Amino acid sequence: MWTPKLDCDSADKKPKVALKTSGQHVIDDQESIFFKAFNSGDKKTAVYTFIDMRNFRDRVVSYKVDVSYPSMYDDDFQQVKNEYLEERFAAANILLGNEDFTASEIIFNEIMQLQPDYKDVASLKKYAQIEPIYRKGVEAMKKEKYRQAYYSFESVVNKQDDYKDSKSLMQQALQEAQYTIAFLPFENVTYERGAAERLSAKILNEVLQNKGPFLKVIDRQNIDVLLKEQKLGMIGVVDDKSAANAGNIIGAKAVLIGKVLEIKVSESPVVAQKTKGYESYLIKKLNPQTGQYYNETAYKKVIYTDYNGSRNVTCSFQYKLISAETGEILMSNIISHTESSSVHYANYDGDYNLLYPGTWQSQTQSSASDVIRNNSSEKNQLKALFTAPRVLDSRENLLSTLYDKIGNTAAKAVYTYNPEN
Predict the structure, then answer these.
(1) Where are the domains of the chain?
(2) Is 263 in contact with 194 (CB distance < 8 Å)?
(3) How far apart are CA 281 and CA 356, in angstroms?
């Protein structure tokens, strides 16, 4: 039997021939557009058309397909590109002189894409980028917005380490922006021992971890040393006036005081309740018509034990940030949270996988009011009770969670406080 011979070389050439034909059409069209733009003085169209034509040729050649490329226009392209660059460079400098930094940067970017080493375009582009940020910092300094100024000068220094006097201005802004807060002992008006100390420690640790470059913190230990040097004690330093006075003495700009207002625990002990239900089982029956045995589901009335219990802990905490200079309350809030733990589970002496919820009047007699809820959803809900958690979260764990949540909230208010706003 005769079979045709597959010409692999011929099959491989067909797509290349098609690519050469279509590619040549594209280049011819671009050549025509370039020629017209060049002769009509449309420099931008001429430059970008030629670049597109050259890039397209390179892509086609990468597939090992030769196309005719008008290299005779290379000199014309170089000429028109130089003229276009000169015009764009002049336009960008005019914009820069008019302090239109954004528009000038756009043109400098275009020039660098066409010729990265063109004149001093790189340094002018950097100036167009950095100068507005620098001026923003200077303006912020004049308005005594030292934090804004610091970040502006930091951005400048990261872009160019030696740009004008940015580094020294950044340090000056940082010095002016720094804000010292003293943590005075917190008050506890509840019967929960150690609550004030634990909340104070939590807030202090969170503030220290997130305080950023501006916030300085004087903690309890250092406060005690400073007050002892002044022969003063911390007894009674809880009201606004005495707190501000203590802050003034130790050189803080503000003091943080706090008070644990309430810790309340409410519990519902785990209570067992006998609950009615049904257990399924199979009955073997004979089909009189077929003579075959089959299984039929039946239900017996049973009792299982249902357990319920809960524990709730509530904590309320008040904090105030007070100016040591004026005694003004800069920030104040009462934070209240509740943490809860509950259990709901069940026990059964038999196989709980066979249990169904339901109700019945008598365990030994049938009644019209007996109900078996044998849908899969309710059965699965009951089944889940037998593997549910059986231990309430401890009072201590709930309190610890409360201290964390309240401490995080109060600490965030402190370390995000901006006295310049």
Answers:
(1) 101-177, 178-421
(2) no
(3) 11
- What would the DSSP string read from start to end of 169-194? HHHHHHHHH-EEEEEPPPEE-SS-TT
Going by C-alpha positions, the residue among 274, 281, 320, 322 that lies closest to residue 298 is: 281
Residue 72 DSSP class: G
Instruction: Compute the average pLDDT of residues 31-41.
Output: 94
Alpha carbons 49 and 34: distance in angstroms, whole number: 6
Inter-residue contact 203 to 275 (CB < 8 Å): no
Q: Which residues pair with 9 in a beta bridge?
A: none
Q: What share of the chain is helix, strand, coil (3-state, %, to 5)?
A: 50, 25, 25
178-421 CATH fold: Rossmann fold (3.40.50)
Burial class (CB in 10 A: 0-12, 13-18, 19+), 188: buried
d(CA 180, CA 210) in angstroms, rounded, equals 14
Helix or strand holding residue 315 (H, E): strand 293-323
332 strand-pairing partners = 320
| Res. 10 pLDDT band, cuts 50 70 90 | very low
DSSP letter (8 states) at residue 352: G
Half-sphere exposure of 300 (CA within 13 A, CB side): 10
Which residue, chain included where needed, has tokens 């003579």? 291
Residue with tokens 């692999």: 8
SS3 label, residue 42: coil
Per-residue pLDDT averaged across 282-300, rounded? 92
Q: And the tokens for 109?
A: 């970017």
3-state SS, residue 93: helix
Report the sign of the C-alpha dihedral through residues 248, 252, 254, 259, in that order: negative
Q: Is 253 helix (H, G, I), strand (E, B) or coil?
A: coil
- Angle 352-357-359 (CA atoms, 0-180°, nearest 5)? 130
Residues 6+ apart with CB under 8 A from 400: none
**The pTM of the whole model exceeds 0.70:** yes
pLDDT interval class at 223 (50, 70, 90): low
| H/E element, 198 | helix 195-210
Please work out, in degrees rounded to the nearest 5, the angle formed at the alpha carbon of residue 170 by the alpha carbons of 169 and 172: 60
184 in Cβ contact with 192 (< 8 Å): no
DSSP classification of residue 135: H
Are the CB atoms for 16 and 64 separated by under 8 Å? yes
Which amino acid is it at 374? N
